[in-house]
Write a structure and sequence with these properties.
globular; alpha/beta
Length: 423
């Protein structure tokens, strides 16, 4: 890469980065601050447009002065011909223009093949790195081989409900003493959150159909191009089917037959690509046998409810599925090991966290007596089989109630989303 172009790029990006809006303070900053003084690279991965660049700006603003760091955004199309061999020239140019600094902020670094060699060398020389990328598998593979034991992974999701309220300039009230007005406002914003989701730019520019553009970018740029899929029709059909059937059980074999995808391995690979691009997630059925977990049907979830509403087929009527997807995303921000559970009598519990011994059922309403009996019966059976003393039902109902002498708590979802660890 020519040095003159590199100079222009670095100067342009430096000025733009200093002017970048900081937006809503992300909850991840609390976690990241713990690693600010360590030598480990902080690697931030997440969906396109989820706010990774803004999080870098928040890190720069809150932890450092403008003279402490270098910033480079490799998503800039002018870096198209930049290779790993150009990193030394990049560093020389940075030293020439900005002087010696020990902090590197590298945005969408996975666009440069072999980037990890430069990062490892500079870490060994005492530098600190904050790195972002939109592909979980690519970063994981490269980091695992070149930066073993020298990095901390951070996952960035769309706004949580608390961050959504902050975006709307609403303070989170004391949940233990909600007034009638506070409760009604929270429920109204909760309803908005279900429909719009938490992707920052989609909230900032509601007049633009950003969800659809983002979805297409992931399918074509992050999956088809990256994994060299020339026939995209099958990939698009599978992705559309999955996002239209979130919170549902899926069988790889049935998907192969339904979409005529040729082989189960093709289905597995495509779903894996969608997951590593942060568009979809799957969870396994809990079983003490790993083999049983692998062969059982999976449950599918999407990265954002606003994206589901904008892209999926006729999803407006199935609110319960959206609620379950929202609960999954809240759990996934906190825990990696999440399962669904099926009792010996084939009763399903939506979520089971084995390490925390938590069972969660999601239900839009318990007003119907038969629905209430079904949900409680499944939890009682699961509690007995797993030797667990308590469980939770999350609903849209306003008031909290208890079943089985308080062993099963029913909690309004708009409250639970704001404090999932203490409800």
């Amino acid at each position: 890469m020519k040095k003159d172009l590199l100079k222009t790029l670095l100067l342009d990006q430096s000025e733009q980065f200093k002017k970048k809006e900081l937006g809503v303070t992300r909850e991840n900053l609390i976690q990241i601050k713990k690693y600010a003084n360590s030598s480990y690279a902080v690697v931030i991965s997440g969906l396109r447009r989820v706010g990774k660049s803004t999080l870098l700006a928040q890190i720069a603003h809150k932890f450092y002065s403008s003279d402490d760091y270098y910033f480079v955004n490799f998503e800039d199309e002018r870096f198209l011909n930049f290779t790993a061999d150009d990193f030394n020239l990049l560093y020389e140019t940075q030293l020439e223009f900005f002087g010696q600094r020990k902090i590197f902020l590298l945005d969408e670094v996975q666009n440069v093949i072999g980037w990890e060699r430069f990062v490892r060398r500079m870490i060994d020389e005492g530098c600190k790195f904050y790195i972002t990328g939109s592909n979980a598998a690519l970063l994981s593979k490269e980091l695992g081989t070149k930066l073993t034991g020298r990095y901390t992974p951070i996952e960035l999701f769309p706004f949580s409900f608390a961050e959504f309220l902050a975006f709307k300039q609403q303070k989170t009230p004391n949940l233990a003493y909600l007034t009638t007005l506070q409760k009604s406002k929270l429920k109204r914003y909760f309803n908005d959150y279900i429909v719009t989701g938490g992707i920052p730019d989609a909230l900032k520019y509601p007049e633009i159909n950003l969800h659809k553009t983002l979805y297409d970018d992931v399918i074509y740029r992050d999956v088809a191009v990256r994994y060299k899929i020339e026939e995209t029709k099958a990939l698009k059909e599978l992705s559309f089917y999955l996002i239209s059937n979130i919170s549902s059980l899926v069988s790889f074999n049935k998907l192969k037959e339904l979409l005529k995808l040729g082989s189960v391995n093709t289905v597995k690979n495509y779903i894996d690509y969608l997951q590593t691009s942060w568009l979809m997630f799957t969870i396994n059925k809990f079983a003490f046998s790993i083999k049983k977990q692998q062969i059982a049907n999976k449950k599918i979830y999407a990265i954002d409810t606003g994206l589901i509403k904008s892209v999926a087929f006729s999803f407006s009527e199935n609110r319960g599925k959206l609620l379950e997807n929202l609960v999954f995303l809240t759990l996934r921000r906190l825990f990696e090991e999440i399962y669904y559970y099926t009792t010996q009598n084939d009763l399903e519990v939506d979520f089971y966290l084995p390490k925390q011994k938590i069972l969660i059922q999601v239900c839009q309403s318990l007003a119907d007596e038969e629905t209430q009996k079904r949900e409680v019966k499944a939890l009682i059976a699961a509690m007995q089989e797993l030797n667990i003393n308590s469980a939770v039902i999350l609903t849209e109902d306003e008031d909290s109630v208890d079943f089985e002498n308080g062993k099963i708590k029913v909690i309004p979802m708009f409250k639970w989303l704001l404090d999932p660890l203490n409800n």
